[in-house]
Amino acid sequence: MKMSGNTVLVTGGSSGIGFEFASQLLKLGNTVIITGRDQARLDTTKKKLPTVHTFQSDAGDPKAIAALYAAVVKQFPKLNVLINNAGFMRKINLHAAGNELEDLNSEIETNLSGPIWMVQQFLSHLKTQESAAIINVSSGLAFVPLPISPIYCAAKAGIHSYTLSLRAQLKGQSIRAGSAVDRNSAGGYIRSGRFDRFKGDASR
């Protein structure tokens, strides 16, 4: 897949890995769109990356995703790359008596359900592009979980598994899918910061 001239949507692009994705992709000559829940942080990112496009949106809210899709596709009809990066990590003591059942799922909603919803929402549009890609950000903790963050690790393991199935179902299509993980982990993408090759797909 070409490394420049793409139109890329990065969820959670105002900080961390998402910000680095946006920064590096802009340097390569791509049109980059980022999302985030905090408008102030998006505004700060816009000052640092003047050519980036921003949309306030919650990646863990299906209604917000539907609204984001309508706005982005209308303004950027050539969108051909989706990077599902938005997520958060918490320390959770499973022995704690005060754990509320609904609250325990919040990391699942953003880190696992969110990317699944995003893919489902944008897939039909991505299929119309000559060349497209979906990148779901996973973690080495999907393979070697950190006990103090059990829900986060479970969500990242889930997104890795989902991405393997997604990639298999997209075989023969114009869309490629993979996981971005740290350099010491197994996954679809060779390592974070490398946007040109999938593991087992180095010739492309």
Describe the structure.
There is one protein chain. This protein has one domain (7-180): NAD(P)-binding Rossmann-like Domain (Rossmann fold, 3-Layer(aba) Sandwich). Helix content is 40%, strand content 15%. It is built from six helices and six strands; from the N terminus they run E-H-E-H-E-H-E-H-H-E-H-E. The chain has helices at residues 16-27, 39-48, 62-75, 101-104, 106-126, 150-169; strands at 7-10, 31-36, 53-56, 81-84, 132-137, 175-180. Strands 3-2-1-4-5-6 form a six-stranded parallel sheet, with helices on both faces. Pfam families: adh_short (PF00106).
Give keywords.
disordered C terminus; Rossmann fold; alpha/beta; 6-stranded parallel β-sheet; 204 residues
SSE arrangement, N to C: EHEHEHEHHEHE
Query: Based on DSSP secondary structure assignment, what is the total number of beta strands?
Result: 6
CATH topology, anyone? Rossmann fold
Largest sheet: 6 strands, parallel
Q: Which structural category do the helix and sheet elements fall into?
A: alpha/beta
Shape from CA axes? globular
CATH class: Alpha Beta
- Give the helix level as a range of percent: 25-40%
Overall number of domains: 1
Residue stretches low in confidence (pLDDT < 50, at least 5 long) are 183-204
Q: Largest beta sheet: what is the strand line-up?
A: 3-2-1-4-5-6
